[in-house]
Amino acid sequence: MSKALHSDATRRSLVTPMLFEVLDPALRAHLVRGATLHAFEDGQIIQQRGDAADGFWLIEEGAVTVGQFLPEGEFRAVALLGPGDSYGELAVFSGQPRIVDAVSRGPSTARLIRARPFLDALGNYPGSTRALIGALSAQLQETLSLLAGLRRGTNPARMAGLLATMAGELPGPARIRVTQQELADLLGVTRVTANAALGVLEKRRLIERGYGTIAIPDRDRLLTATLD
């Protein structure tokens, strides 16, 4: 995760680098210059599952929730992204339709980097291709580790693991801008269950709840707490 971009703003659920982040700086600058900037309102759908993968998105301002709309209309989030994050590259590489929906969380702006210019330019930067493979591997490893952790233990323990991951790896206190519903979605539980888990963590003084925020005084203590 780009620590400078995410240091007291929206923090995402994975801390491995976004794919765009590992590209050569000259390539990133070239792609941004040719990308169209789009503005979105709160709750506006940015992309939908089944759309053609005509490019990928780079968030400039605000936040985007990525997930899937369930058949009954409920949105189930799988990741929360903020400024400097990118998403949609995998669909571009595979040439397959998109498999996730993306919704603006509050007002946001993002650049659409078109698939063909991206793939054509990437051929001139072999180092970036190798870096992308490394970032993909790291993302897969962390995703598998996170999924395994979220399936084990009590709900407070699972919540603690998720919050510690979102807090990143910087020492000292962290503040995460996230709602209880978003945390519930990321854990795959109801809002009532998420609220109860947060209550346990707050009672242990591992977190402090605010309006739309979670403060973590000590990430290491949260990560290693015994929550049977």
Characterization of the model:
This protein has 228 residues and is of the alpha+beta class. 40% of the residues lie in helices and 25% in strands. It contains nine helices and nine strands. It has helices spanning 3-6, 25-33, 89-94, 115-122, 126-150, 155-167, 180-187, 191-203, 219-224, and strands at 36-40, 45-47, 55-69, 75-81, 86-87, 101-114, 174-177, 208-210, 213-216. The strands form two sheets. Strands 1, 2, 3, 4, 5 and 6 form a six-stranded antiparallel sheet that branches. Strands 7-9-8 form a three-stranded antiparallel sheet, with helices on one face. A hairpin with a 2-residue loop joins strand 8 and strand 9 (213-216). Helix 6 (155-167) crosses helix 8 and helix 7 (180-187) crosses helix 8 (191-203). The longest helix is centred in the middle third of the chain and has 25 residues, at 126-150. Mean pLDDT is 84; it is low at 1-10.
Order of H and E elements: HHEEEEEHEHHHEHHEEH
Please give the radius of gyration in angstroms.
18 Å
**What is the global morphology?**
globular
Number of strands: 9
For the sheet with most strands, the description reads: 6 strands, antiparallel
Approximately how much beta-strand content do the residues carry?
25-35%
Descriptive key words:
228 residues, 6-stranded antiparallel β-sheet, 3-stranded antiparallel β-sheet, 40% helix, disordered N terminus
In short:
This protein is an alpha+beta fold. 40% of the residues lie in helices and 25% in strands.
